[in-house]
Specification:
Spore Coat Polysaccharide Biosynthesis Protein SpsA, Chain A; single chain; binds manganese (II) ion; binds guanosine-5'-diphosphate-alpha-D-mannose; two-stranded parallel sheet; elongated; seven-stranded mixed sheet; 2 domains; 15 helices; alpha/beta; 51% helix
């Protein structure tokens, strides 16, 4: 059994959700410095709600791993929202076995994002991180994330959508919802959502200095979006990981999180922070020109193949049109892959990845086609515009859309430098 000394819980910070610039430690007088208020390099918050079945295991795994390379220079902070299964009590009991473990029990506030920030407010580290308690985030990735920070990144996120990343057994519906949310984010808040390949990630670390003294106001689940939105983040690094299946307990995600996500995006958008990010942003003009040239070549291919199929193969109109369009999509893809986005695809070699890019490109083109038809109809029927002008505007809008979405989803650039 454990020793009798009872370990205190952390006091829950109140007031603004703002991280202090310097860790809350007693500086100066080293003689009286107790191990309890010593600064550390890395603070990892583990938010929990009903994770009684996972808490011991995750603490054990993280300790084993982190002891391997930053022993004595890190802390684990469990922030529990008064779980009915008493996760906080179990965590508290673990403290005598794991001296680097600290536990916060919140009884008033609730919610994942604020839990993480409250944990960071109590943190003594220079680098602040977060990981799920349910073992869906593989702990090994921490080492690469920390390495990225050491190399100068302000933010290092674990991503399901870069090399080495993925989801284990997600249904098509769940994948679709997840990607749909990302797409929506790109439309509403491109300069925040577009900075990382996996904006929904709840597994990342950030330099304290990048988010200190900024009042955060997150909603629901997606704390990373708030960090990018209000933080002063220059360099971003991403490390691929496979989102594991949950073995114990259950997910707390409901439809509410989707609504909160959208509201969160809208609020960040109107928050005026975006203007600051805009200055840093350089429009990819040359790339867009190349994309335009390739697009024009596609029109030629489309028409040419259509002509051949109609005149020489005697194929029906619709079939010819579909087939010729698909051929043009293929040639467009090949040209874009080799030229427009050549610098990016050369970093993502291999057939598998190329085919993946092609499938995404294809889907985005099809969505563009639907958008095109909708726009022409809208401009012509609702605004009474000349139909050729309407078509021209639709083509321009869809070209922009295709370019932007392809840039962000098919050929993704992560600005690591
Ligand atoms: N303190 C606290 N309060 N913790 C919470 C709350 C809450 O209200 N809700 C959830 N948690 C904890 C869970 O106990 C778990 O450790 C972690 O937050 C993630 O919750 P899950 O319910 O397991 O979420 P998921 O499996 O759908 O994961 C998705 O969200 C994660 C968090 O953003 C994915 O998008 C992950 O990539 C992401 O990390
Ligand atoms: Mn989970």
């Amino acid at each position: 059994m454990f020793t009798d000394e009872s370990h205190d819980l952390l006091t829950v910070p109140t007031g603004n959700l703002r991280i202090p610039e310097a860790p809350p430690v007693t500086a100066g007088d080293n003689v009286s410095e107790s191990p309890d208020d010593r600064a550390v390099y890395f603070s990892l918050v583990i938010p929990t709600f009903n994770e009684a079945k996972n808490i011991r295991k995750i603490v054990e795994l993280l300790t084993k791993l982190l002891d391997g390379f930053i022993a004595d220079d890190y802390e684990l902070i469990v922030v529990d929202d008064n779980s009915p299964d008493c996760t906080w009590e179990l965590a508290q009991a673990l403290m005598s076995e794991y001296p680097q473990l600290r536990v916060m029990r919140r009884q008033e506030e609730k919610g994942l994002s604020t839990a993480v920030i409250r944990g960071w407010q109590a943190a003594k580290g220079q680098v602040l991180g977060v990981i799920d308690a349910d073992l869906q985030h593989p702990p090994e990735v921490l080492q690469q994330l920390l390495a990225a920070i050491e190399q100068g990144a302000d933010l290092a996120t674990a991503s399901r959508h870069v090399e080495g990343g993925g989801v284990s057994e997600w249904s098509v519906v769940r994948r679709f919802l997840s990607r749909g949310a990302q797409l929506l984010g790109l439309v509403i808040l491109p300069r925040v959502i577009g900075r990382v390949s996996d904006p929904m990630s709840g597994y990342f670390m950030v330099r304290r200095s990048a988010i200190a003294n900024r009042t955060m106001n997150p909603m629901g689940y997606k704390i990373l979006i708030e960090v990018i939105g209000v933080g002063n983040i220059d360099q971003v690094a991403e490390v691929g990981y496979v989102f594991q299946e949950r073995q114990e307990g259950e997910s707390k995600v409901t439809w509410r999180q989707y609504v909160e996500y959208i509201l969160h995006l809208l609020r960040l958008r109107s928050g005026g922070r975006v203007a600051r990010l805009r200055k840093r942003w350089q429009p990819p003009v040359a790339r867009f020109m190349r994309f335009g040239v390739v697009g024009l070549s596609g029109v030629g291919v489309d028409l040419g193949i259509f002509y051949l199929l109609r005149e020489f193969a005697g194929l029906a109109l619709t079939r010819s049109a579909i087939l010729s369009s698909e051929v043009a999509i293929i040639t467009n893809f090949l040209l874009n892959d080799a030229w427009t986005f050549g610098d990016i695809s050369s970093k993502q070699k291999g057939w598998k990845r190329r085919i993946k890019r092609f499938i995404k490109f294809n889907i985005i083109c099809l969505m563009g086609l639907i958008l095109n038809v909708l726009l022409v109809n809208l401009l012509f029927n609702a605004f009474g515009m000349n139909e050729y002008l309407a078509k021209l505007i639709a083509i321009a809008a869809v070209t922009l859309w295709n370019f932007w979405i392809n840039l962000k989803l098919s050929w993704r650039v992560t600005e690591t430098k």
